[in-house]
Amino acid sequence: MMMRDFFVGFIKIHIIYHASKAPIYGVEIMNELKRHGYSISPGTLYPTLQSLEKEGYLARERKVISGRMKIYYRTTPKGNKALGQSRKKIKELVEEVLQE
Q: Is the pTM of this model over 0.70?
């Protein structure tokens, strides 16, 4: 259970990071997370995206692409601030953990 909690935190940071670079949508971020070794189901991803939106870290935008509705997410100012704070803490943690 503890490892799952760690990975959920990492996944949230990945999502916020990628949404800060360009608007993202579900399948795209699932593939990106898979590239990083995270196997995440739509049943986990979409509630996570909705939670990040509800908490004010992401904003959603609906777009019609090739006749299909897609929901894109991008970071909000709160999400960008959280990402900046996370970067500092991640850097400090990585340096400390990898010192050995």
A: yes
Strand order in the sheet with 68-75: 24-25, 68-75, 58-65
pLDDT tens per residue, range 34-81: 998 888 889 989 999 999 999 999 999 998 888 888 999 999 999 999
Residue 7: CB atoms within 10 Å:
15
Q: At what angle do helices 26-35 and 2-21 cross, to 10 degrees?
A: 120
pLDDT for the residue 51: 95
Q: Can you list the pairs that 3-8 forms with residues at least 24 positions away whose Cβ atoms lie under 8 Å?
A: 7/38, 8/48
Residue given tokens 């709160």 in the structure block: 78
Q: Which residue has the tokens 């993202």?
A: 24
Query: What is the Cα gyration radius of the chain?
Result: 14
Q: Treating both helix axes as pointing N-terminal to C-terminal, what angle do 2-21 and 77-97 enclose, rounded to 10 degrees?
A: 130
Q: CA–CA separation, 66 vs 1, rounded Å? A: 41
**Which domains does the chain show, CATH number per domain?**
2-97 (1.10.10.10)
